[in-house]
Design goal:
Blueprint (H helix, E strand, L loop, with lengths): L2 H7 L3 H12 L6 H11 L5 H12 L5 E4 L2 E6 L4 E7 L4 E5 L6 H8 L4 E4 L4 E4 L10
Antiparallel strand pairs: 1-2, 2-3, 3-4, 5-6
Length: 135
């Protein structure tokens, strides 16, 4: 999120989630409008730099691997499999649980990440996630 929107919606994440959800589910014919809205709310991600920083930071961890553009955490101890794909506009995390070991590493990179799970109607500011302490 851009700084000004992170400040504006910090204490009202449900409003930001509704906006993001409307953008996500916007009709295909409104894709240009949706992109403009999304672009106003968010900063672009330096995909190459973030990919590189994550790989350098994580490549020695036993549970981490990278395949193509996918960063993978396969932690048998925590029964977690998470896949992170870095895009220029957003990060996509697929996980078998509601927590990903990528969260603490992403938080180090940016304090304005807003996590949305549209299927489960779940959302939170990454820096306000309580389970980050468990890593």
């Amino acid at each position: 999120m851009k700084n000004e929107f992170a400040k504006l919606y910090r204490d009202a994440p449900e409003l930001l989630f509704q906006i993001m959800k409307q953008i996500y589910f916007m009709h295909e014919s409104d894709v240009l409008y949706a992109f403009q809205l999304f672009d106003q709310l968010t900063d672009s991600i330096d995909k190459r730099a973030l990919d590189k920083r994550l790989f350098i930071q994580l490549h020695k961890k036993m549970q981490y691997s990278k395949s193509g553009n996918q960063h993978i955490m396969n932690d048998l101890y925590r029964d977690e499999v998470s896949i992170l794909i870095v895009k220029a506009s957003h990060l996509l995390i697929t996980s078998n649980g509601n927590y990903s070991s990528f969260f603490p590493y992403l938080l180090e990179k940016n304090h304005h990440y807003f996590v949305c799970d549209f299927r489960e109607s779940d959302y939170f500011w990454l820096d306000q996630l309580k389970t980050l302490e468990r890593c």
